């Protein structure tokens, strides 16, 4: 069991249902911890599937406390019948109890990650065929694309359990999604009774997660495949490593940081985050503050601001050591957005920019002799067009100066494709078309 829980009020009349859903959460973790032990995984995942079915049974046994139960529950039954996965869960439970074990098989999925899109070559084969990843690597073409993949690409190898009648889902993920639907059902039962909704929290930090954004799942059920993935640099065969440091800032820390900002930059916190109440207004204020900081310090770190509406949820600094790390890093950040319910992101940092050369489609701007340096702020959100602010950085005698700000609305922003995917937002087709044809026209990065 990890440090995340779904809390409900004491004395809740739906306590028996909560307990059974908590049992399902625990059993999910047993299956996760047994992933590389076939017999233990088989028993744990089948127990979880059986438990998932009893959640609704116990809810029905408490129907007397839910107003207009038959009408209310009938709508949920219709919804669940329309979801193929939930129908499969019912059928799977019946098979386990009446016929025997599910027909599960362990696979190795190997994919090449060399883009912000999920477009790289992929192979999924029985787990005993360990030479499949090597064959995948050997299939990389001897072309400019192939050179780019070998230089900046990552080979991701992941173990996956699949059931014969549900080939499109990994089994842990299938049960996690089913948990989410049942959690949504239980939340709505609280609404029907007039009770406060349960809250998903980190038991150690008290951090509140957004259950709606997570579609009822627990935070641990999002991005869980990363924990059983091995990422290897194609360039040298070494593992890709990340270090994540989290720091909780208390009131005294905030006061000290506010004093430092005023003393060093002449900025008040309200000058940085603005009070416009709009994402565009916050973007403008942050960019103005970034310009002041860059001219004072001579540089600006890459920083992400996560918002839910106009409320700041989190700030994080990104420090990719290699260009290829960005592909995985942005996927990891996308999982965080879903867990925390962030619907708006602003990213600010320095980038190199250079003209696109058709003869060198995978040339990075940092390697171009004619490159120029920019301070860039991007606003992307769950709904609405992306906005980019950019200003050229000119360095004279050791002093950095930021020139006039350019504003671009819309456009292709490949970097944020994982965010769109996490939000369930369609990635504009022109992004992929442009990326494939010319790697972004103005080759920035």
Commentary on this structure:
- The chain folds into two domains: 4-101 and 171-204, Four Helix Bundle (Hemerythrin (Met), subunit A); 257-444, no CATH class.
- It has 13 helices and 13 strands.
- The chain has helices at 15-33, 38-61, 69-81, 84-98, 132-138, 144-152, 171-193, 251-265, 269-273, 279-297, 325-340, 417-423, 429-438; strands at residues 4-7, 104-113, 122-126, 154-163, 199-202, 229-233, 302-308, 311-318, 344-355, 372-381, 387-396, 399-409, 442-444.
- The strands form three sheets. Strands 7, 8, 9, 10, 11, 12 and 13 form a seven-stranded antiparallel sheet that branches. It has a four-stranded antiparallel sheet with strand order 3-2-4-6. The chain has a two-stranded antiparallel ribbon with strand order 1-5.
- The radius of gyration is 25 Å and the shape is globular.
- The chain starts with a strand and ends with a strand.
- Mean pLDDT is 88; it is low at 438-445.
